[in-house]
Task: structure prediction
Amino acid sequence: MVKIISSLQNPLVKNVLLLGEKPRARKEQNRIVIEGLREIRLAMTSGFHITDLLYTPELVSDDDLKSLALHDNQTELTEVSRDVFNRLAYRSDSGGLIALAEPRRLVFGDLQLRPRPLLLVLETVEKPGNLGALLRTADAANLDAVIICDPQTDIYNPNAIRSSIGCIFTMPVVTASSGDTILWMRGAGIKIFGTALTATRLYHQTDFAQPSAIIMGSEANGLSTTWLKGSDDLIKIPMLGKIDSMNVSASAAIVIFEAMRQRGFR
Result:
């Protein structure tokens, strides 16, 4: 029997709000909040277990609801009123669906790399919006994985999920320390290309046809000394204007798609 909730004081409603706002609660409960039909479908297809599905009948079709409910028969279905849903929803186009799910915490051993892998490594990414945009670029290029080193934001922050339009679920994502990542890539025979304004080599002069990792630092500080010293080569995008800075997601897209061009977009 489906539960029906119409009160903002309901414990489940309060907990969904808590999970959406507090990284510590997400970690302690091992739950994340996913909003929207597309994002929930992508998570399910990628093997995320949906524990709870909250929906508003006025906003979601019976066919869409049934397709999600049948995908995982262990999911708890809960109907909520329009007022309750409007309080829970971060955005206006979520289609009347919010899910709670168990996150996936991948490690290096979980990755299935191609013979010539291409990776994106992000150091101390701070802004959920930037993380989401970077994941969209990684998905568009079909990279082997994204590795997030020493993150300053929860990768399952609702804003990161939303800005990634679900690519957080389509991409293999590993979080690790910078030191462990460098050691793993050296052991795997992956060339490390750090991006830095102090570099002398331009990005398009670099051989990305070999197993490669593109390392992006924070917008505020760039790469740390660990990566500047740990990279096999440092590369840069030529800056011809008066400001020598670009958004990190735009910079990553430029370098990644040069690598894809060299690989024949395969």
Observations:
- The longest strand covers residues 50-55.
